[in-house]
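Feature request disguised as a bug: please show the residue count (422) next to Copine-3 in the output. Example input:
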Amino acid sequence: MADCVSKVELTVSCTDLLDKDVGSKSDPLCVLLQSAGGDKWTELGRTERVKNTASPSFSQRLRLDYHFETVQNLKLGVYDIDNSSADLSDDDYLGGVELTLGQIVSSKTVTRPLQLKKGKPAGKGTITVTAEEIRDNRAIILELEAKKLDKKDTFGKSDPFLEFFKEGDDGKWKLVHRTEVVKNNLNPTWKSFSVSLQTFCSCDLEKPLKVDCSDYDSDGSHDLIGSFTTKVSEFLKAVEFDCVHPEKLKKKKGYKNSGVVYVKSCKLVADYSFLDFVMGGCQVNFTVGIDFTGSNGDPRSPNSLHYMSPDGLNQYLSALWSVGQVIQDYDSDKLFPAFGFGAKLPPDFQVTHHEFALNFNPANPFCQGIEGIVDAYRRVLPQIRLSGPTNFSPIINHVASIASTAAQANTASQFGLGDEKS
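Example output, currently without the count:
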């Protein structure tokens, strides 16, 4: 899930804050906290203090990592600051709000009433939070060729490939890309490739790059043909580079190069991240398919995945809560179609059904939120008989049909996520 991790910047503003100062308005500051589990919260950052205002727009942005696969519970608290101490315990609390980061990025901008505590509003005060991804979403697309490379193999031509290195903070070269090997060719053309600009040059077009051209050997003892140093800004000029072998340069008088590498094409393009789609309005449509085949074991047995423990949970419910709590923030109507498969249904229990509405309403299989799916599952489990065989293709085809219909209707902002629990 590494591609689903981004840096996010939150911008905060408030309106109609409580007035805690005599003879002037409050001097508000906003602090950002993230849940560390239980009742523990960790401070991630705070804004500057804005003097004498009930409706501040904070210029100091709050930064944090965004993880799509995790429910990130956040708390924003606003305080009236009347001293130089960093400790907020002696400052007046003007109200706060609890949100998930998923709610913020999926809406881009969220406005909520401030509360002094749960159920107690902080007057008419509101807080507005806007999310923006901190990421250069460009990628470099590069196509290179070479001419007159040195012959390195005794019984054939060289098998050249290129390796690209960027200079690290420690001054060492770090590999960022390797091309394919072009067999038996002294005038190769390598396939066009794309690498994120962050990876390729840390988004710095002037960052030093080193390119090695080597002759491939299957035992890993590749022979260097030659190297050159450059930067992305030079690649963009579509120039050519002398491929120089350092030892030959030292020893051979009049040595010029061991071949020339040419830039056939180089361009920078937008490389959209997952968060770009979410913040662009993409909805994640969550569909649940629950396995009721006999392979799960008798629901009355503690060894069954469907067995309800004394606290009213089982492995299916745990999976539903874990996945559903993440997904639900990205679906605006919170209506999730839920199906079962592999069971015999009342009243006759004669036929195994490989797709049935979990709420027994085929005309409207939607459940309201994860709680609705859980309630439907709890109700249906005692009424059915586990059967078989395992055949979940009807549910997958159903979800594919929904996605196809959305695509044909030009609603590409709908992203279907089929989730089969087994």
